[in-house]
Specification:
Distance between the termini of chain B: 53 Å
Largest sheet of chain A: 3 strands, antiparallel
Number of domains of chain B: 1
CATH architecture of the largest domain in chain A: 2-Layer Sandwich
Oligomer: heterotetramer
Number of strands of chain A: 5
Helix content of chain A: 40-55%
CATH class of the largest domain in chain A: Alpha Beta
Radius of gyration of chain B: 17 Å
Distance between the termini of chain A: 125 Å
Strand content of chain A: under 5%
Number of strands of chain B: 0
Shape of chain A: extended
Number of domains of chain A: 6
Chains: A mainly alpha, B mainly alpha, C mainly alpha, D mainly alpha
Helix content of chain B: over 70%
CATH topology of chain B: Helix Hairpins
Largest interface: B-D, 70 and 87 residues
Chain lengths: 586, 102, 358, 165
């Protein structure tokens, strides 16, 4: 009973106490109100520092931003994106065209025009993975360490989806047409531009000279380099002379607190080297006329039949070596004959009447370029590395092909690594020099794989070595074979079987005297009748060796029998089986 | 319209309906509803007679109050029985409650 | 039968306007009450939780300001939303009951207002049994609640409705007994009689210590009858989704809402009429104010005082809501049957003795 | 016809039709809902008989108490699987005939009997008169009823509690 009443009393006490507490809050509302009236009031953006020393790791992931002027269209970010929210489309201006895509702040020559670079922020999951692969550092999350590039933005709520798909590409239609992207535009819009691309080209041709970044590239630190390049570009574009630019770079570095004493020499380098690169191969390319008409242009024709006819006529005209105007005339004629000539097609064909066909010159320019891949045939790793390094250096210096070869040879000689073989290889990188001695190369078509049928490892190694030596010496096939045989004989390893095999590598010498390969039609399956596994294996091996050596059926059988006899396995049954190879042949 | 006979007829209809429900329905609760109808008709009769019978006092009203009180008591007890029936037989069909038969 | 139609026409021409006017008045009171009370409730709850409450849908151009009246159009917008919402009837539900039950509950609250006064002259009908009528009619809603829960064919709804019915019926007893105490003392069931008694003597709450206790018992029971926190187990969100209202939407849900806030107003009005002197001015009651202030009486001032008292009581209800946690079912029943009921019974006996002695 | 007669007809029709529904509906819940309207109709008839206190009591006790109890009973005594609760009627024809005969009898008696009709009573203050009568003339039945109520309360509590053992 007393508990009942004490319960009631304590209940009343807590009742009043609770009411008092809430009433206090009710009265104190102005002091205590903590709610932010969000759209009207906002919290200050907090300093984002999660404790990394490097500022670039303290990234705030709020939105992706792209500096489209720096984008080279490499698609690395698109590929990196795990949710495919980045969509990039590129147009590669035709080779030899006079359309310049521009230069990035890092000094890279852009080779693509980017008509579309859209990021769907509704799909983006802010993983930041697209940021790292970008070679030009042009895609980044806004705010944080990037706040100098773009201030933070974290409210992009919208009523529809479309405002959240950010389009960064700024290429205008005219630029796209100038870059040869007319079919891209047509595909996108389904209409044909009414302007002649050629007229546009002349107005839009970029005249900005190429900057010489060589000296600036000497900065090893990434951040510093970027800073320096920015200052350099700004200075160079403003038309200042080298010394002023150098001081500008220096002051920029000092401002950013990145300047170190050892950079002094680099700055001097900048001051002494020319700001613009001399007219290299790229400028030569620019001067060249636009390439011939592209068959792909015809893809924009909607009617299948018409497209087919037009393409046929196009190919025929091209084979006949006609220029753009000629091709378009031919197509027109073909279509008029077929009664399919429409305004649409005429409009497309107008774009063909670009004079000139630079394919030949293109080929020559490609051919004259030294090929670094040829250096891969150098066996010694060290030497290969050295050669490649000097190759790259020469390339950067935009040396001519002959100069490059000389450069590499010089470097190798200095390193005391130059052998005669090497010299040949190095010389081979220049197509011209290779062309000078075409005969041995084409004739030396011996097959080293044929040596694989040599069973003894040691012997095989020896044979291969001498084969390679002979090859390098560009010996004729016959010489090679004799070389190998001599080597083997010296090593006291020459057996009659070997001799056959070795001789088989030179089809000119050995196989030429024998029946053509197609006649070797003995059936190895017949040997399956041999019951003993061991014997069957031996027989088959011998058979294959004979086959490789392109022996005649009689010789094959004899060889098999000889092998078996050596191993004391030639039983009557087996002999008949082996002989049956011949029987069926007849 | 507003005379004794009309009230008597209404209460007769209610009574007969209640009687019919008690006779035909096998669900205990439905029977209870019929009983409520019968009690209502009786109560209505009392009040009607009180008004039109030349009474000086409100005896009919007092009887009506007693009827309502008894109806409440009856309903409570009846529902308690029906719920017990349901607990034991898993059914409220009054025909199933026949185990007291000899 | 021509007489029938003649009578119908007579009815419509002679009484129709009067009846519909009364009905419209009651409906208007209920609607305005719901609109204002919802806004009031939101603001009170916000302030008690150190928030600001609705601030955006203003009609006075206070958008975003830190003014109290910001967001005054919020409930209007909510009402529009409710009226334009799709009216969903679940496939397996008992559709007739689903349609009928909101109207039963609404009519229960609606009819109760017939007996509820707003001042000595401003009321629909002056009953001889005023308080009894109000108590009787306010118990009609229970049937609607049970039918709503049953018709929804949803276990949460059924639980909620059974809890609600049990709670309302249980708490009707202490509430009725507390009012019975006043009826014993004043010797009348009429609301006017009770207020006149208070005008002659004093406010009931100050009449005797038992009446003081009875006021609290009635008020607590009233809070429980309106299913408000801390007695909101019928619609305990954490257990029963929304109790018996779970399956209702749109206009039919709005009817629930209207009747719930109407019930709040009825409880508060009844408490202030019965215990707090009704439309009597507090000046006359305390007798310490100068004579010139006594003009604050009359029909309109009476309405002002009555509504002021009711609004204060409604505020206290909201204050309860944001102070106390929800009771368990057993605690709820314990409070009713083991605390409030014995106290009100003892009160009843004690007040009879008190009346005999003094 | 006056307005009051019109309203009377409406209330009487409501009462009787919903009473029919109570009896003939196969869905127990619908029966209970119809009973609600019947009880309200009877309360309306009480109002017509100038018995306002009885009308209020009718609503309070029947609607607020007994009807709720009945609906509770329906819900507690069924294996709830859907919202309709059906039940069966047995000897319909016989019961109908018997009921109809009784109705004819009662109606005949009510219509033909010359009832003692005095002045129509229009008591203004029913509550005071009823209170007086209960505590004077009808004190013993009043106490008896209170005892019956107490017994019913205890008895039903005893019946419906859980049996131990």
């Amino acid at each position: 009973m007393s508990e009942y009443f004490s319960n009631i009393v304590s209940g009343l006490k807590s009742f009043t106490k609770g009411l008092q507490l809430t009433m206090q809050h009710f009265n104190n509302r102005k002091k205590l109100v903590a709610t932010l009236q969000y759209p009207h009031e906002k919290w200050p953006i907090p300093e984002r520092n999660i404790g990394f020393e490097l500022e670039e790791y303290n990234v705030i992931r709020s939105r992706l931003e792209v500096d489209i002027e720096d984008c080279i269209g490499c698609l690395k970010c698109e590929r990196a994106c795990p949710v495919d929210c980045i969509k990039i489309e590129t147009i590669k201006p035709p080779k030899g065209g006079d359309f310049d895509c521009g230069v990035t702040t890092n000094g890279t020559q852009k080779k693509m025009l980017v008509p579309r670079f859209s990021i769907d922020m509704t799909e983006c999951m802010f993983c930041n993975l697209c940021v790292f692969p970008c070679p030009e550092e042009c895609i980044y999350m806004v705010g944080g360490p990037n706040s100098s590039k773009h201030e933070i933005e974290y409210e992009f709520a919208a009523r529809e989806r479309s405002p959240l798909i950010f389009e960064f590409a700024v290429a205008t239609e005219k630029e796209i047409i100038a870059a040869g992207g007319i079919d891209y535009l047509n595909k996108k819009k389904g209409i044909v531009p009414d302007e002649k691309p050629k007229e546009v080209k002349s107005t839009l041709k970029k005249t900005e000279p190429k900057l010489n970044f060589e000296a600036v590239n000497a900065f090893t630190d990434r951040m510093t380099r970027a800073l320096a390049k920015k200052a350099f570009t700004a200075g160079a574009r403003a038309g200042s002379d080298a010394a002023t630019v150098a001081t500008q770079v220096k002051s920029a570095l000092v401002d950013a607190d990145k300047f170190l004493p050892e950079y002094e020499s680099i700055i001097e380098n900048i001051a002494s080297s020319p700001l613009m690169t001399s007219a290299g191969p790229t400028t030569e390319l620019k001067a060249k006329p636009a390439s011939g008409p592209d068959i792909k242009l015809l893809n924009s024709i909607t009617d299948k039949m018409v497209r087919g006819t037009a393409k046929k006529a196009f190919m025929a005209a091209k084979r006949a070596g006609k220029d753009g105007a000629g091709i378009s005339d031919d197509i027109k004629k073909a279509l008029t004959d077929a009664g399919k000539l429409t305004d649409e097609v005429i409009a497309i064909l107008k774009s063909f009447s670009v004079p000139g066909n630079s394919e030949v010159s293109n080929e020559s320019s490609v051919a004259s370029a030294p090929d670094i891949k040829k250096l891969n045939s150098i066996e010694d790793k060290m030497v290969r590395g050295l050669a490649k390094k000097s190759f790259m250096a020469a390339k950067r210096a935009k040396s001519s092909a002959a100069d490059t070869v000389a450069h590499i040879l010089k470097d190798l000689k200095e390193a005391d690594k130059l052998t005669a073989d090497l010299e040949d290889i190095v010389k081979s990188i220049v197509p011209d020099t290779v062309d000078a001695t075409p005969a041995p190369k084409t004739e030396f078509n011996l097959d080293i794989k044929k040596l694989n049928s040599i069973e003894d490892k040691m012997v095989r190694g020896l044979a291969k070595k001498s084969f390679m030596a002979a090859k390098r010496a560009k010996n004729s096939a016959a010489d090679t074979v004799t070389n190998i045989l001599n080597d083997l004989k010296e090593a006291d390893k020459l057996t009659p079987d070997l001799e056959i095999i070795v001789k088989s590598i030179a089809p000119d010498t050995v196989a030429a005297t024998q029946a053509p390969k197609t006649e070797f039609n003995l059936d190895i399956k017949k040997l399956n009748l041999i019951e003993d596994k061991m014997i069957r294996g031996m027989a088959k091996k011998a058979f294959m060796a004979a086959k490789r050596a392109a022996s005649t059926p009689e010789e094959t059988v004899a060889q098999i029998e000889a092998v078996l006899k050596e191993n004391d396995k030639l039983i009557d049954e087996v002999q008949t089986t082996v002989k049956s190879l011949l029987e069926n042949e007849s | 319209m507003d005379n004794l006979t009309s009230y008597l007829i209404i209460s007769a209809i209610l009574f007969v309906l209640g009687l019919y429900a008690v006779m035909t329905r096998r669900n205990g609760i439905a029977i209870l509803m019929g009983i409520e109808l019968i009690l209502n008709s009786a109560s209505l009769n009392f009040v009607a007679f009180n008004r039109f019978g030349g009474m000086t006092k409100l005896d009919g009203h007092v009887f009506s109050i007693f009827i309502i009180c008894l109806a409440a008591a009856e309903a409570v007890v009846a529902l308690a029985i029906i719920i017990n029936l349901f607990k034991n037989l898993e059914s409220v069909n009054v025909d199933h409650a026949s185990s007291m038969k000899g | 039968m021509s007489g029938f139609w003649q009578a119908t026409m007579d009815l419509i021409t002679s009484y129709g306007s009067l009846i519909s006017l009364a009905g419209l008045a009651i409906f208007g009171v209920m609607a305005v009450n719901a609109l204002v009370a919802v806004y009031f409730e939101r603001k009170v709850s916000a302030f008690m939780q150190d928030r600001l409450g609705p601030m955006e849908v203003g009609i006075f151009g206070f958008k975003g300001g830190r003014k109290f009246w910001g967001g005054i159009g919020q409930t209007l917008a909510d009402a529009l939303k409710l009226l334009t919402k799709e009216d969903v009837l679940p496939d397996k539900s008992d559709k007739a009951l689903m349609i009928l039950s909101p109207f039963i509950i609404f009519v229960g609250a609606f009819v109760t207002f017939v007996g509820v006064p707003f001042s000595s002259y401003l009321l629909i009908s002056r009953f001889d049994i005023g308080i009894f009528f109000i108590l009787a009619m306010s118990s009609v809603g229970v049937v609607g609640i049970i039918l709503a829960g049953w018709g929804s064919n949803n276990k949460w709804s059924l639980y909620g409705s059974l809890r609600s019915a049990a709670q309302i019926i249980s708490y009707e007893i202490p509430a009725g007994l507390s009012i019975l105490l006043v009826v014993i003392t004043a010797g009348t069931l009429s609301i006017h009689g009770i207020v006149e008694w208070q005008a002659e003597h004093r406010w009931f709450i100050f009449h005797s210590p038992f009446a003081f206790i009875a006021f609290f018992i009635y008020f607590i029971s009233g809070v429980a009858e309106t299913n408000r926190t801390p007695f909101d187990i019928p619609e305990a969100e954490s257990e029963l989704v929304a109790g018996w209202m779970t399956e209702f939407s749109g206009f039919r849900w709005a009817l629930f809402f209207l009747s719930e806030y109407a019930n709040m107003l009825i409880i508060s009005l009844l408490a202030s009429v019965v215990f707090l002197g009704g439309w009597l001015s507090p000046m006359a009651m305390f007798d310490i104010f100068p004579e010139s202030w006594m003009i604050m009486d009359g029909a309109l001032w009476g309405m002002f005082w009555l509504l002021l008292k009711a609004i204060i009581l409604i505020f206290v209800m909201m204050w309860f809501r944001w102070t106390f946690p929800r009771l368990r079912v057993d605690q709820l029943m314990y409070l009713c049957w083991k605390v409030l009921l014995p106290f009100s019974l003892v009160n009843l006996v004690a007040v009879s003795i008190w009346e005999l002695l003094f | 016809m006056s307005m009051s007669e019109l309203v009377f007809i409406f209330i009487a029709a409501l009462t009787i039709s919903s009473a029919f529904w109570v009896v003939f509906s196969n869905n127990l819940i619908y029966s209970a809902v119809a009973l609600l309207f019947t009880l309200f109709g009877v309360a309306g008839l009480y109002v017509f008989l100038f018995a306002d206190f009885i009308a209020a009591t009718q609503v309070m006790v029947y609607v607020g108490g007994i009807l709720v109890l009945i609906i509770f009973g329906v819900m507690l005594t069924n294996q709830i699987s859907e919202s309709t609760v059906t039940q069966t009627n047995r000897p319909r024809l016989l019961a109908g005939v018997i009921a109809f005969i009784i109705f004819l009898m009662v109606a005949y008696i009510s219509l033909t009997t010359q009832w003692h009709e005095g002045t129509v009573q229009t008591a203004e203050k029913t509550t005071t008169v009823i209170g007086d009568m209960i505590l004077n003339e009808y004190l013993l039945p009043f106490e008896a009823v209170s005892l019956v109520l107490l017994a019913a309360l205890l008895g039903s509590a005893l019946l419906s509690r859980k049996q131990h053992g």
